[in-house]
Amino acid sequence: GIQVEQSPPDLILQEGANSTLRCNFSDSVNNLQWFHQNPWGQLINLFYIPSGTKQNGRLSATTVATERYSLLYISSSQTTDSGVYFCAVDRDDKIIFGKGTRLHILP
Amino acid sequence: NAGVTQTPKFRVLKTGQSMTLLCAQDMNHEYMYWYRQDPGMGLRLIHYSVGEGTTAKGEVPDGYNVSRLKKQNFLLGLESAAPSQTSVYFCASSYVPGRIDYEQYFGPGTRLTVT
């Protein structure tokens, strides 16, 4: 089946820093989403981005479907950005999640 | 608009007991999903449904059954709980017919412990 790899697995940054999270997938996909799981366990949609680039405030994402990767950019990090970031790909109605990047923003 | 709700939020079962988790959505979504999340892991798909009356197996279906008798509800059943089923269970829904996106919306999760 399709493999989804996220990097880095863990990231510790000072408040105000920028970061780039990567998601690689092993085969063509129909859809790709980025989620943030906050420290209370809630999963929040960030981007639905099967291809192209989207921006929402300090966050932006780019998916290059032909090269099978997606990037999530976080600028001017805040402590509320802490948590785990997942990408999930959809192929033939089956959704496969990566193992996530755990981000810790220090005040 | 409540979005996706899950019942119960917490449950403790003894090995061999049965239970049903209920997921409800009020967004007119066609697709619904059940996932489990174990410590340090991403979410793994248990079963899913692409419409009322349909169900299909995901990545880790063994030990679980599901039913989608109504479009807005998706039930996950454990017939004989095992300690390996201790996990946090998430339900999600997506897709409104006529729209092109399949963005998933998640419920708050159910924390299940099997002793």
Question: Please, could you describe this protein's structure?
Answer:
The complex is a heterodimer of chains A (107) and B (115). Chain A is mainly beta. In chain A, 0% of the residues lie in helices and 61% in strands. Chain A has strands at 4-7, 10-14, 19-25, 31-37, 43-48, 52-56, 59-64, 69-74, 83-91, 94-97, 101-106. Chain A is globular, with a radius of gyration of 13 Å. The model of chain A has no long low-confidence stretch (mean pLDDT 94). Chain B is mainly β and 115 residues long. Helices cover 0% and strands 48% of the residues of chain B. In chain B, strands 2, 4, 5, 6, 9, 10 and 11 form a 7-stranded mixed sheet that branches. The relative contact order of chain B is 0.33. The interface between A and B is medium-sized, with 22 and 24 residues.
List the helices and strands and how they pair.
The complex is a heterodimer of chains A (107) and B (115).
Chain A: E1 4-7, E2 10-14, E3 19-25, E4 31-37, E5 43-48, E6 52-56, E7 59-64, E8 69-74, E9 83-91, E10 94-97, E11 101-106
Parallel strand pairs in A: 2-11
Antiparallel strand pairs in A: 1-3, 3-8, 4-5, 4-9, 6-7, 7-8, 9-10, 9-11
Chain B: E1 4-7, E2 10-13, E3 19-25, E4 31-37, E5 43-49, E6 56-57, E7 65-67, E8 73-78, E9 87-94, E10 105-106, E11 110-114
Parallel strand pairs in B: 2-11
Antiparallel strand pairs in B: 1-3, 3-8, 4-5, 4-9, 5-6, 7-8, 9-10, 9-11
Question: How would you describe this structure in keywords?
Answer:
heterodimer; A: 107 residues; mainly beta; 6-stranded mixed sheet; 5-stranded antiparallel sheet; 0% helix; globular; B: 115 residues; 7-stranded mixed sheet; 11 strands; 48% strand
